[in-house]
Design a protein that fits this description.
about 550 residues, 14 helices, about 30% strand, five-stranded antiparallel sheet
């Protein structure tokens, strides 16, 4: 073979079919696979790089060799090579003696790179399409030239392209002109609040890199934005919850620090007003013996509460503007039963109530409900310790504690008072004849009689057994005498309880009047009333007697 090799017949040229003369040196010099084959595909000569093609021919892996030899167009074949395979582009050129020059070019890397590029582009496209982030690019004029196909912020991509990102920015920590959409420097994870199509705001975490021309001029920027609105809302909600918990802990701690139950609600009203930024706070109790709310504590200023309290007939909550006040109120409960209410007032020069305020007042109401119940229990225990279990009147200890307090005040003010000792006559016969139940009924009738002939400012007590006492507040001698006469007349109502006709149930009264300027002590006043009562008992019962004035000096 000679080395004649026409330029127009190089691989891939698609030229004519003039024969080519080749030598061994020419085959070796070819950078790719080079083989001389017969018309039926038998290899006559080959360079080292053509061994893979030669093995494929000999192994029958190129079944269309005849078509390849008779075609002027290249053909691509995947051939085994070692533990893998290579992709070869083959072309056949006519040579001397009816042979063919089969030239091959390894295009494995080229094909792999092309495939990888296509796959990479597709992967990028898929990720962009399914990502919650949105990709974007702005041009030199600062306007969007590209937005992810699915759009962003509730807008379609076409609605954003051509718009300036600044039109959508609501808040950013960066200076004006230094947002990720217009920065000349690369930025990462910058928080930006943006306006959405529905009027709400979304928080996005933006990262960007500038786009520059060959000479370094800024030509725009491209980047991605990740919507973190829900994360920020959760963070804000958690922060608010922690703040509410802190404020509630402050209120609860303030309440519990009070030793006297009577001071609990006062402390709660002050702490609640301060914690919620209220102008004033009112706390009401629903007293066990009443059917309406009673003011128990107040701090600061407020408006007229009647309409608010009346609203609780149909609802547990109230929020409205009354006159110059923003009002927020709710009932308090203990074991599902209403036992009070909490009212907050804020003057209308300040903003209205927030969702956090509404949640916090409910938490406060729960604590107030517990405090109200605790106070009620305390009052019940106190009342039991100070009252007679049968009649509900003051018992001996409570009566003398109270009149001692009043006696000292009246002595300082030089005002009069009267003490009446009441002892039932023939009460033992009631129990002996009719039994103790009737005896109890008689005592209750006596209670009603004494209360009927006294004022709310007076004190009535059962000292024990069939002994009672009355303190007539600021009563002079004539008032005390009229009260005794009235009670003796009314005692005729006790006749049905009598044990027998010769032992009628009535009462003996001993009266001692304390003159305003008198220097008499309380013990002396008590002794005079007691002596007067026993003189009545000794002289026949069923009457009243006025104790002589004290013989001591007057002020």
């Amino acid at each position: 073979m000679n080395l004649a090799f026409d330029q127009q017949h190089r691989p891939g040229s698609g030229g004519g079919s003039a024969p080519v003369g080749l030598g061994a040196a020419a085959l070796a010099a070819y950078p790719g696979a080079a083989l001389v084959v017969t018309s039926d595909g038998r290899v006559i000569a080959s360079n080292g790089r053509g061994e893979v093609v030669q093995h494929a021919l000999e192994g029958g892996l190129l079944p269309d060799i005849a078509s390849l030899l008779n075609s002027a167009r290249p053909s691509v074949a995947t051939l085994p090579a070692g533990s893998g395979s290579i992709i070869v582009e083959l072309i056949a050129l006519p040579a001397d003696n009816g042979h063919f020059l089969l030239l091959g070019r390894d295009i494995t890397l080229e094909r792999n790179l092309r495939s990888a590029l296509v796959e990479s582009r597709q992967r990028y496209k898929d990720l962009v399409d399914i990502s919650s982030d949105f990709a974007w690019e702005v041009g030199a004029d600062g306007r969007f030239v590209f937005v992810s196909p699915k759009g962003a912020l509730g807008y379609l991509a076409d609605e954003l392209v051509g718009r300036n990102p600044a039109d959508f920015i609501a808040e950013t920590p960066m200076d004006e002109g230094e947002t990720p959409f217009a920065s000349a420097l690369a930025m990462e994870d910058v928080e930006v609040w943006m306006n959405q199509a529905d009027g709400t705001q979304a928080c996005v975490l933006a990262s960007s890199t500038p786009v520059r021309s060959d000479d370094g001029q800024w030509q725009g920027a491209r980047g991605i934005c990740r919507d973190i609105t829900q994360e920020r809302l959760r963070d804000a909600a958690l922060s608010r919850a922690n703040n509410r918990e802190r404020l509630l802990s402050y209120i609860v701690r303030t309440i519990r620090d009070e030793v006297d139950p009577a001071d609990m609600l006062r402390a709660a009203a002050e702490a609640t007003a301060r914690a919620l930024g209220a102008t004033g706070c009112q706390i009401f109790r629903l007293l066990p013996e009443a059917s309406d709310f009673a003011l128990a504590a107040q701090f600061g200023e407020g408006g007229e509460e009647k309409d608010v309290l009346d609203s609780f007939i149909g609802s547990d909550h109230f929020e409205d503007k009354i006159a110059a006040w923003h009002v927020l109120a709710t009932v308090s409960r203990y074991r599902h039963s209403i036992n009070g209410a909490v009212l907050l007032w804020r003057d209308d020069s300040r903003p209205g109530w927030s969702d956090d305020d509404r949640l916090l007042i409910d938490d406060v109401a729960n604590q107030v409900g517990l405090a109200n119940e605790q106070i009620t229990n305390h009052e019940r225990i106190l009342r039991l310790s100070r009252t007679d279990s049968l009649t509900g009147l003051f018992n001996r200890r409570a009566f003398f504690e109270e009149i001692a307090r009043r006696f000292n005040r009246l002595s300082r003010e030089h005002k009069p008072a009267a003490l009446i000792y009441v002892d039932l006559d023939n009460f033992k016969a009631v129990n002996d004849v009719h039994g103790h139940h009737t005896g109890d009924m008689a005592l209750l009738a006596v209670r009603d009689l004494l209360l009927k002939h006294t004022r709310p400012t007076d004190l009535v007590a059962r000292l024990g057994g069939d002994e009672f006492a009355i303190w007539l507040e600021a009563a002079e001698e004539q008032i005390a005498i009229r009260r005794c006469e009235g009670m003796l007349v009314a005692s005729a109502e006790l006749a049905p309880f009598s044990g027998s006709a010769d032992k009628p149930l009535h009462m003996s009264l001993g009266v001692a009047v304390h003159a305003g300027p008198s220097a008499e002590s309380l013990d002396e006043l008590v002794a005079r009333a007691d002596t007067a009562m026993y003189e009545v008992k000794r002289d026949g019962k069923g009457a009243w007697r006025l104790a002589p004035a004290p013989t001591g000096k007057r002020d």
